[in-house]
Design a protein that fits this description.
Order of helices and strands: EEHEHEHEHEHEEEHHHHHHHEEEH
Bound molecules: nicotinamide-adenine-dinucleotide
Largest sheet: 7 strands, mixed
CATH superfamily of the largest domain: Dehydroquinate synthase-like - alpha domain
Oligomer: single chain
Distance between the termini: 48 Å
CATH topology of the largest domain: Dehydroquinate synthase-like, alpha domain
Length: 347
């Protein structure tokens, strides 16, 4: 088992390794004592994994309740959020109790926000079950739901108290969703670690999952420790994401987050090359790595079409957009780009 400790406004451990999910009862007990547990999952994850988690907790004497919602990004909205808050209230949870978000990034974002809001904050344990949630969304404390105007527009920073990252969950993850997570893994390689990029660039990484997840979580931890509230270095984690959010929205969320990130990374690397903004061309390497991990590298949406969506993005502030650009594989930088210049580049 690997342990990565996050030292943000709250200190917490991310435990990574086969079988760590079995530690849930003892960890809850040692962190919070005798509390009640609300398990939150989408219907897919509930069908496959919720009974096991609930039984583990019940056998250890915990009183549990479950909240299950329909899977998919469409559920990451204020209506489902308030249904979850009403559930917590109906079940008379207190702020000393624990919400366990067992699922992918949608469950983690929704559950994390509910835990922050309910009675101004209850305990939160993240148990990511998708690769994307393991390497990215379960760590770092960003929580949100989507609004009609765009993704993740209503949210707060809420660090969990514990993250249990068990790669065994990935055996039931559909290949499509596994690839989505690989987009974020490739991203970490491009922004911070050429060796990680080399490890994953040919695909077929299932025998090295704990090692790869640990490396990604460590990179994210280092960034979050330095810039928890996203005022500086954390922006690097958004490599490919500004265009990705626009692609997701334009496609009415039929293009998944991971696939949109893959396309967004290629588009932005292409722009960097075209405009002489990178030291070493890396578009081809990124495209190959994505293709080898069953990810798309382009979309029919034109850059100009995505521009309107881009300007709605939270990362567009004060007349400029922070573009994250690759210098070379393993090294990216943030460039505040005036909207007019951005529009010219994208058109
Ligand atoms: N908070 C953050 O820092 C952060 C970072 C990146 C992405 N996100 C958010 O994460 C979301 C995407 O995450 P995601 O790709 O995990 O989406 P998701 O939660 O919708 O999961 C993808 C699909 O996989 C299924 N699934 C998950 N685990 C499974 C398992 N073990 N077995 C079988 N099926 C399983 C889910 O039911 C769903 O259908 C987006 O909303 C994105 O905005 C948040």
């Amino acid at each position: 088992m690997q342990t990565v400790t996050v030292n943000a406004s709250k200190q917490y451990d991310v435990l990574i390794g086969s079988g760590v999910r079995a530690l849930l009862p003892e960890k809850i007990s040692s962190l919070f004592g005798s509390v009640r547990v609300c398990l939150v999952s989408d219907d897919n994850v509930a069908r496959l994994h919720l009974d096991e988690a609930e039984t583990l907790l019940q056998n250890a004497g915990f009183n549990c309740s479950r909240f299950v919602f329909p899977h998919g990004e469409a559920s990451k909205n204020p209506t489902v959020l308030f249904e979850l808050l009403e559930h917590l209230a109906d079940e008379r949870f207190s702020r000393k109790d624990v919400l366990v978000a067992l699922g992918g990034g949608v469950t983690g974002d929704l559950g994390g926000l509910a835990a922050a809001l309910y009675m101004r904050g209850m305990h939160l344990v993240q148990i990511p079950t998708s690769l994307l949630a393991m390497v990215d969304s379960s760590v770092g404390g960003k929580t949100a739901v989507d609004l009609k105007a765009g993704k993740n527009l209503a949210g707060v920073f809420n660090q969990p108290d514990l993250v249990l990252c068990d790669p065994d969950y990935l055996s039931t993850l559909p290949p499509e969703d596994f690839s989505d997570g690989m987009a974020e893994v490739v991203k970490y390689g491009v922004i911070a670690d050429e060796a990680l990029f080399d490890t994953v660039k040919d695909g077929c990484i299932k025998d090295r999952l704990t090692q790869i997840i640990t490396r990604c979580v460590t990179i994210k931890r280092d960034v979050v420790d330095e810039d928890e509230f996203d005022t500086g270095r954390r922006a690097l984690l958004n490599f490919g994401h500004t265009l990705a959010h626009a692609i997701e929205a334009k496609s009415n969320f039929t293009v998944s987050h991971g696939k949109a990130v893959a396309i967004g990374m290629c588009r932005i690397a292409a722009l960097a090359e075209q405009h002489g903004l990178c030291d070493a061309p890396c578009l081809k390497q990124i495209q190959n790595a994505l293709t080898n991990n069953d990810l798309p590298t382009d979309t029919a949406f034109l850059n100009a079409e995505l521009f309107d969506e881009v300007t709605k993005d939270k990362k567009c502030t004060g007349g400029s957009i922070t573009l994250i650009l690759p210098r070379r594989i393993g090294d990216c930088y943030a460039r505040a780009t005036p909207i007019d210049e951005c529009k010219r580049m994208l058109s």
